[in-house]
Amino acid sequence: MSKRPVFDPKQTFLDLLRECRNSSGVSQVELAKRMGWAQTDISKVERGVRRLDVLELRLWVASIGYPLGAFVDELDRRLSSQNALAKKWAPSRSNNQPA
Questions:
Q1: 46 with 18: CB under 8 angstroms?
Q2: Burial zone of 33 (CB within 10 Å; 0-12 exposed, 13-18 middle, 19+ buried)
Q3: Integer CA distances (angstroms), 56 to 8, 23, 49, 50, in order
Q4: S-S: 93 plus which of 1, 17, 80, 97, CB 3.0-4.6 Å?
Q5: Which is one Pfam family of this protein (predicted)?
Q6: Residue-wise over 59-92: b if at least 16 C-beta within 10 A, else e?
């Protein structure tokens, strides 16, 4: 029997942040310089220890040359895909079981 996959929206967000930075060829040190932050803050965000507000997200993606709209669209696409998969894995309910 297959193991049910676990979908974590927060981890999806963090993975996308890291992927965008890496695909832009920007190190954590370089991103920190561009943002005026410490490298440890970049690391904390990517590990999920520190959260970003929307203005910080805007600065983050602009600092790696990634459009905010494109980032949000990709995040939405990934989360929608995960939601669809989660629904496939959800156990079926019979008519006599509460929702």
A1: yes
A2: middle
A3: 22, 19, 15, 11
A4: 97
A5: HTH_3
A6: bbbebbebeeeebeeebeebeeebeeeeeeeeee
CATH homologous superfamily, domain 7-65: lambda repressor-like DNA-binding domains (1.10.260.40)
List the chain domain ranges. 7-65
Distances (CA, A) of 52 to 47, 66, 93: 12, 16, 38
DSSP category for residue 95: T
Residue 98 is predicted with a pLDDT of 52
Token pair belonging to 2: 């297959």
Check residue 69 and give its pLDDT: 98
% of the chain with per-residue pLDDT over 70: 83
